[in-house]
Amino acid sequence: MKIKLIDFGYTKAPERKHYNDTGADIYLLKDITLFPNQTVVIPTGFGIELPDGFNASIQERTSVARQGIMVHHCAIDAGYRGEISMIVTNVGTAIQMLKAGDRLAYLQITPCVYADFVKELGEERGDGAFGSTNIGG
What we know:
Order of helices and strands: EEEEEEHEEEEE
Largest sheet: 4 strands, antiparallel
CATH class: Mainly Beta
Mean pLDDT: 91
Strand content: 35-45%
Low-confidence stretches: none
Oligomer: single chain
Distance between the termini: 50 Å
């Protein structure tokens, strides 16, 4: 699948290191200092054009999580065309120095289902459990 990048000043496009990686590395645009318990919004320098039926999300790399840095898992809708930013929190006790060009997070693209939320489905279903349908007993 090809995803069109929208240029908001990125220096390196997201990339998968191996053909079967589920996520593409996101590179930092500039140096960042994260103090313990500090949350910052970090722009990525890019946006994406997703086709309907897909969404994207960002999650931290394992090596980043091990350092006590949490990248908040937020959804990116197919219709969003703005710059993608990461919400990042240092949940550790040490100051973290992040450098421009570091791989901080993964961008993942996944299919999604568009649900219609209704009050009735037209089928009666009880709230019992363990044999409440009277099948086999």
